[in-house]
Sequence to fold (100 residues):
Amino acid sequence: MNATKKQTGSELLIELEGSIDSTTSNELNTILSQSIKGINSLILDFKKIDYVSSAGLRVLLATFKELVNRGGTMVIRGVNQNVMDIFTMTGFDNILTIEK
Fold:
């Protein structure tokens, strides 16, 4: 998994590439937890993400909760149909803000 960050003030865009699975979820957790300090708006670009496992979903949910608990927002953009199916089957489409 690769991640590219672009910050503008308190908004952070992270473009991700690859799979978010049990192998890469710890890496994503580290990237997100270190990156969201002082951030009010997090945008995750999923255009190049092809798979998200339950381990990845846990990281996304924990990050979402942390941001929302301090009044911030998190949006996942560019989700392909395979990943959207995962969000839908798990009910995450009702929790997270997801844009196709």
